[in-house]
User: Fold these one by one.
Assistant:
Number 1:
Amino acid sequence: MIKLKIFVLLCSLFLSFSLLADDYEHKQNKNHIYKNLDYLNLSKDQYKEIKEILIDYRKEYEKFYKKKAKREKELQELIREKKFDKEKYENIAQDIHQEALELEIDTLEEIHSILSASQRKKFSYYLWEWRVE
């Protein structure tokens, strides 16, 4: 019985180390270029679809940043006023954040639908690159 327990323990350790090694391999890719999807080995159809998504994403991103700049000016004006309107500041800041989050989610949802399971796993390691700030 002890031999069986030791065997199970060794097998579980080996399995966990192999899973960690897979994660470590992806995290240590120092040759990765920001928002470059070459590591996914996309098919021609996937490449075409994602290219269209990224073109739309860029247009939406530009619209968002123009809107964000206007909203940031409103925040600056609130700070300059004699009395600070906490509620109004909070609402504007939340609107900016919410809009950024929606843009991010919409884009990721479209990309997710195109990728295979293994591609999604690889993509997940670089998810931080796709955050809208």
Number 2:
Amino acid sequence: MDWKRKLRKEGYLELDGLRIELSLDNTFMDIDYIPRVLVYSEATGRWHVLRNPIPKGETLEESWDNAVEVLDAIARGEVRPELEDSSVEEQLITVLRSLTRFENQ
């Protein structure tokens, strides 16, 4: 199973000291939920929220598909991840690119 399908099916990936999770968030005073990607770094010992814009879908499934598309764009080098820690950004890029390279072999 490729990493994108696995992430969508299981809701998370654990790779090389990172845990990448699909989540939902609601903005203050808003009952509408928006998709989020959370990244736990063993190196920092904390969670980081991916701040790249993720388009809200018509359904929960579509929203999470959009989140996976943002991660795929990061893996392809089209988008740079926006996290509050540049070392975690670099680690995320490395992990996602290695998955994509492995997938294409």
Number 3:
Amino acid sequence: MTKRALLLLLPAFALAACGEEPAAEPAPVETATAEPAESLAAPDENVFASVYAAACPDAEPVNTSVCKRLGIGSADVLCEYGLGDDEYLRNKATLTPGDGEWTIADPETVCAAGA
């Protein structure tokens, strides 16, 4: 055999050697699955108005409100709202889930601001 023939056969031998070993099987990985947690629906204007009215019966009624989560993974919701004839969101209250319904986190402070 000549050198030229050997040089031509060398890549063929290299390619043949590549597929010889079987690939190692990946080890089974246990993945943790979280139990689905029941969560309350996001509060809208009507929900916030009823929660506020229940917590602060002597305060003016809620005219308008906007609620949003405090952060990713947070269960609490921050609501900005206006009372009586006020159409601006001048007040703030934090709602927290409790016993299957929304409750105001600090009702004394929130009710005192609305009175």
